[in-house]
Amino acid sequence: MELLSSTKVSGGWLKRYRHESLSVKGDMVFAIFLPAQAESASVPVLYWLSGLTCTDENFSQKAGAFKKAAELGLAIVMPDTSPRGTDYPGEHESYDFGSGAGFYVNATVAPYSNTYHMYDYVVKELPTLVEEHFPVTDKRSISGHSMGGHGALICALKNPGRYQSVSAFAPITNPTQCPWGEKAFTGYLGDDREVWKAWDTCELIATASERLPLLVDQGEADNFLEEQLKPEALEQACEKAGHELTLRRQSGYDHSYFFISSFIDDHLAHHAKALGL
Ligand SMILES: N[C@@H](CCC(=O)N[C@@H](CSC=O)C(=O)NCC(=O)O)C(=O)O
Questions:
Q1: Transmembrane residues, as ranges (predicted)?
Q2: What is the dihedral of CA 57, 62, 68, 71, to 10 degrees?
């Protein structure tokens, strides 16, 4: 691992690293916030999955999360949102597919199937690396925004026992039924919509073997609300399956990091409680 930068914040340290990833067959950059408590004991970790167009830096620069994480003694790991360094046809042409838009799936359609294995990267490879090299425990939680909210929810639903808690901001709840998801899943997974269901929160909720309570915040002034995010689909799926959901519709808030920064402390507290902090 190559240390790219080290910055003191809220009594802890934000460090950025580049490393070679086996999952995506190339270099990846991630950031980790380590609170001061990590200097004397191992601390649990929240994995934050960002949305379309993001890198590891959007959350660290805009969410305002580190003061609360420092108080709680919680580490936060922030991966990138796609592999970088390839140049497939169409990979860099649109904001909602290819680079910056890995959708946290394992692609099966060439050429993306060569490297776009963001699900394996965030669920397995990155936690293994983090737990080997940093003063953290194997107690993990996961959260994210929009495409990353979808990622957080599917990672938790597909991996019972792996996370202590899950939450999301404005998640793409039903990607098999919205334009962002249809475009990404066609390009990464192919035309068979049955295959897509294994990567859709609303589909996974029905058969989940672990029922971690979901905390979801959704801005009511979010431009993407009706066409892409569909919180009512999540509500219906949870109600049908008897899955606990706290869906907070926040009046006046949009899709931006201003919205995330307004409620991130509540999410950190939710995760801290589940992590025993
Ligand atoms: N560029 C697009 C919209 C891009 C956008 O809103 N990205 C969001 C995530 S959207 C879902 O995954 C984001 O977090 N952007 C980064 C930021 O720092 O705000 C457009 O122009 O509409």
A1: none
A2: 50
Cα-to-chain-centroid distance, residue 137: 19
Q: What is the CATH number of the domain that holds 149?
A: 3.40.50.1820
Distance 200 CA to ligand 1 centre (A): 20
> What is the domain extent for residue 38?
2-275
Query: pLDDT tens string for the chain (277 positions)?
Result: 999 999 999 999 999 999 999 999 999 999 999 999 999 999 999 999 999 999 999 999 999 999 999 999 999 999 999 999 999 999 999 999 999 999 999 999 999 999 999 999 999 999 999 999 999 999 999 999 999 999 999 999 999 999 999 999 999 999 999 999 999 999 999 999 999 999 999 999 999 999 999 999 999 999 999 999 999 999 999 999 999 999 999 999 999 999 999 999 999 999 999 999 9
Residue minimizing CA distance to atom 16 of ligand 1: 54
Query: Which member of 99, 146, 165, 167 is catalytic?
Result: 146
What's the structural domain count of the chain? 1
Is the pTM higher than 0.90? The answer reads yes
Instruction: Tell how strand 26-34 and strand 43-49 pair up.
Output: unpaired
**Residue located via tokens 């915040």:** 217
